[in-house]
């Protein structure tokens, strides 16, 4: 079964493997297959589920809500997010204005078929809305009982500090950060993690297997496997392309003997690796097949010895991205149209 960890400086426990439906539900995966994946997650003990209003332009929330509606709500932790354009994508269908937040939470609750979400997250930082307005709107969402806790995604260290400061003043709990984090993408380690630790915030990380690169299925000098994310022109290929070069793929192949020593698949090793960071509360895993969920669940509770952590660093060498500025560079400085 899956281990639980506290989320930030709160009493909320979540499963250290959290099921996410970005790029899958209502997009790459048929609804019946999506239901099978969620059932597999529940069967292995995953009770935390992450989605967002923007996924499949709101349809992913609907699919997840339909699948989970027969489950005991009190036994689940449901997370969603707000920021990116949704609906007809009008001038106010995007961002973290009070208007968009208040309308978006109502839409998300309807689609998810629940009275509240456990965690409501700012999907990016909105440079066009005063932070005070954003946090006040989040506080009202909490006071109305529509969300229990607040989180952020891909915010810088300074943005997290300011958000937590305002949350404290408003007497609500901002307890989580959802950044990209993997063996290959470690941009949060130098600034975001220390700021989070001092602020009572922990990480729910996405892409722990680097869009599938860390599974080892992409070989240097070879075309990507048919049907893999690297061949998905609907969005997957664009996300993975930063890792799709022979230098990275050659280094990744050096991880296979380390995984074998631990009797793990390379995907399990990658997920277990992010969970070694004490500031990480959960790794988000997605799936297009239920057996992927079952296999990845075996990463829960794995402890990687220090000497093998060192060997991982040596194997990957200087291909690891560590620059904290990447958090700013990969995020929009103005609301997307």
UniProtKB/TrEMBL annotation:
Keyword annotations of the record: NADP, Oxidoreductase
Region of interest (Disordered), residue spans: 216-235
Presence of keyword Oxidoreductase: yes
Manganese is among the record's keywords: no
InterPro entries named among the record's database cross-references: AKR, K_chnl_volt-dep_bsu_KCNAB-rel, NAD(P)_OxRdtase_dom_sf, NADP_OxRdtase_dom
Ranges where the NADP-dependent oxidoreductase domain occurs: 17-315
CDD domains: Aldo_ket_red_shaker-like (cd19074)
Domain of life: Bacteria
GO molecular function, one term: oxidoreductase activity
Coiled coil start-end: none
Alphabetical list of SUPFAM superfamilies matching this protein: NAD(P)-linked oxidoreductase
Family: Belongs to the shaker potassium channel beta subunit family.
The name this protein goes by in its record: Aldo/keto reductase
Organism: Demequina activiva
Phylogenetic lineage: Bacteria, Bacillati, Actinomycetota, Actinomycetes, Micrococcales
């Amino acid at each position: 079964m899956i281990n639980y960890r506290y989320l930030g400086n709160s009493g909320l426990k979540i499963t250290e493997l959290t099921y996410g439906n970005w790029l899958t539900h209502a997009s790459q995966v048929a609804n019946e297959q999506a239901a099978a994946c969620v059932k597999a997650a529940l069967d292995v003990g995953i009770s935390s589920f992450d989605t967002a209003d923007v996924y499949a332009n709101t349809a992913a929330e609907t699919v997840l809500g339909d699948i989970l509606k027969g489950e005991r709500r009190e036994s689940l932790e449901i997370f969603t997010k707000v920021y990116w354009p949704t609906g007809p994508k009008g001038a106010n269908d995007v961002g973290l204005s009070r208007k968009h937040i208040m309308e978006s939470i109502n839409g998300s609750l309807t689609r998810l078929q629940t009275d509240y979400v456990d965690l409501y997250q700012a999907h990016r930082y909105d440079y066009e809305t005063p932070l005070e307005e954003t946090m006040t709107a989040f506080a009202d969402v909490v006071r109305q009982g529509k969300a229990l806790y607040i989180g952020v995604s891909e915010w810088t260290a300074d943005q997290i500090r300011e958000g937590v400061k305002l949350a404290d003043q408003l007497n609500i709990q901002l307890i989580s950060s959802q950044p990209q984090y993997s063996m290959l993408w470690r941009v949060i380690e130098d600034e975001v993690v220390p700021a989070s630790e001092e602020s009572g915030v922990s990480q729910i990380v996405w892409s722990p297997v680097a869009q599938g690169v860390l599974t080892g299925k992409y070989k240097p000098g070879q075309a990507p496997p048919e049907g893999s994310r690297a061949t998905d022109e609907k969005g997957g290929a664009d996300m993975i392309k930063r890792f799709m070069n022979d230098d990275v793929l050659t280094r990744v192949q050096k991880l296979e003997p380390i995984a074998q020593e631990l009797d793990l698949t390379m995907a399990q090793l990658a997920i277990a690796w992010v969970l070694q960071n004490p500031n990480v509360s959960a790794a988000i895993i997605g799936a297009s097949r239920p057996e992927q969920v079952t296999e990845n669940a075996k990463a829960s509770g794995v402890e990687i010895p220090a000497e093998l952590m060192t060997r991982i660093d040596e194997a990957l060498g200087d291909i690891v991205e560590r620059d904290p500025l990447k958090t700013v560079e990969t995020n929009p400085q103005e609301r997307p149209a």
